[in-house]
Automatic annotation (TrEMBL):
It catalyses: a beta-D-Gal-(1->4)-beta-D-Glc-(1<->1)-Cer(d18:1(4E)) + UDP-N-acetyl-alpha-D-glucosamine = a beta-D-GlcNAc-(1->3)-beta-D-Gal-(1->4)-beta-D-Glc-(1<->1)-Cer(d18:1(4E)) + UDP + H(+); a neolactoside nLc4Cer(d18:1(4E)) + UDP-N-acetyl-alpha-D-glucosamine = a neolactoside IV(3)-beta-GlcNAc-nLc4Cer(d18:1(4E)) + UDP + H(+). GO terms for biological process: protein O-linked glycosylation; sphingolipid biosynthetic process. It is found in: Golgi apparatus membrane. This is Hexosyltransferase. It comes from Cyclopterus lumpus (Lumpsucker). The lineage of its organism: Eukaryota, Metazoa, Chordata, Craniata, Vertebrata.
Length: 399
């Protein structure tokens, strides 16, 4: 048999070149590959095979001396930790006594996380889905809207922005501000502010909602959903509902704003948590999260994750709702509006979306067998086809 050694050498060279090229591609793309594939495999393995987060109670627990100092300071009049109130409205939920009790029956305490300079976003919310008068007159529900703020991080702008905030608060009386820098890495301070303020001044609220100032909330649908929960069990308990992230890995890329170094969080997976853009907890869960913030070190600066850590430490698990969008944005269509609860990414179109989504003809055209078939087909086209990304999951089309 004749063997062509020249052809063999050519094949070997091609194999070497191909292998070298593949190795180069892997080396160049390793960071992305590690983040999107390897880290998720590790996190899911940890989440579903190990599922042991006992370290939260040991590694993140405060010492008894620090816990006593922290708890005592939170009970003082002036502040939250080292952050005194710059604006506060203790009587927002009615009564306003030190024990947080009131005769007012509040269905929902609505906390919106906002940046000091975002006046237009706050104003749009006041005029649409956060309008307390509308919710009471049209829906017969008692909702209390407040905005959680820090101080402007730019020293040069701070005085002017603060003066504008004081005027805004005099006009609307709904700003809750503490003396910490309003930055991404202080979002956990805002989360703590929400649960401590709610515990002290609005403990009677049946539900507490945390929301960003660039989300849209379909308040009629949300109120109906909460009332259904109350009617089914008279007192809603153990509720923490939103868009759930399960087995999510920490981001290790230093250029990402979500970067978490190993020395802060060395484990491969976070506890389950809901997207911080918008979620709802029942009153008993709000009380448990309050207690957890007294027990756990709040060094984790990603507030969504810290919420998950607090909930895990207190034995609370998040529940998925397909129409809580998380990071997603709703398609603009009446067949979506019939079911939507939250939608993310609405910094400029809140007023127009509110008008469209709450138009009486939307709910009026939703009944009947033919309309249901039509809307299901529309939702499948909008939510299940690959060209429409970053919105509700395909499961929402059939809910």
């Amino acid at each position: 048999m004749f063997i062509n050694f020249r052809r063999i050498r050519k094949c070997q060279c091609m194999q070497l070149l191909t292998t070298g090229l593949l190795l180069c591609v892997v080396m160049v793309c390793w960071e992305e590959l590690d983040h999107h594939v390897v880290s998720h495999m590790r996190s899911y393995t940890y989440r579903y095979l190990v599922d042991n987060y006992d370290f939260l109670n040991s590694s993140y627990a405060l010492s008894s001396s620090r816990r006593n100092r922290k708890e005592g300071y939170y009970d003082a009049d002036g502040g939250l930790g080292n952050y005194p109130y710059l604006m506060n409205h203790p009587g927002k939920c009615g009564g306003g006594g030190r024990d947080g009790q009131s005769r007012d029956d509040v269905l929902l305490l609505l906390f919106v996380k906002s940046s000091p300079e975002n006046f237009e976003r706050r104003q749009a919310i006041r005029e649409t889905w956060g309008n307390e008068s509308f919710v009471w007159s049209e829906l017969g529900a008692s909702v209390r809207l407040v905005f959680a703020l820090g101080v402007h991080p730019n020293v040069g702008w701070r005085s002017r922005v603060q003066s504008a905030l004081l005027q805004e608060d005099q006009a609307y009386g709904d700003l809750i501000q503490q003396n910490f820098l309003d930055t991404f890495h202080n979002l956990t301070s805002k989360l703590i502010l929400q649960f401590h303020w709610g515990h002290k001044y609005c403990r009677q609220a049946r539900f507490l909602m945390s929301a960003d100032d660039d989300i849209f909330v379909h308040m009629p649908n949300l109120v109906e959903y909460l009332r259904q929960l109350l009617s089914s069990q008279s007192v809603a308990k153990d509720l923490w509902v939103g868009h759930v992230h399960r087995g999510a890995p920490p981001v290790r890329r230093k250029e990402s704003k979500y970067h978490v170094p190993h020395d802060l969080y060395p484990w491969p997976a976070y506890p389950d948590y809901t997207a911080g853009a918008g979620y709802v907890v029942s009153g008993d869960v709000a009380a448990k999260i309050y207690q957890a913030t007294l027990l756990l070190n709040s060094s984790m600066y990603i507030d969504d994750v810290f919420m998950g850590m607090c909930a895990k430490a207190m034995g609370v698990s998040p529940q998925e709702h397909v129409y809580f969008s998380g990071e997603g944005k709703t398609p603009y269509h009446p067949c979506i509006y019939n079911h939507m609860i939250t939608s993310h990414g609405h910094a400029t179109d809140v007023r127009s979306l509110w008008q469209a989504a709450t138009d009486p003809t939307v709910s009026g055209n939703s009944g009947g067998f033919i309309n249901n078939i039509y809307c299901t087909a529309v939702r499948v086209a909008l939510l299940c086809l690959p060209y429409y990304q970053n919105t509700y999951s395909c499961m929402a089309a059939f809910t």
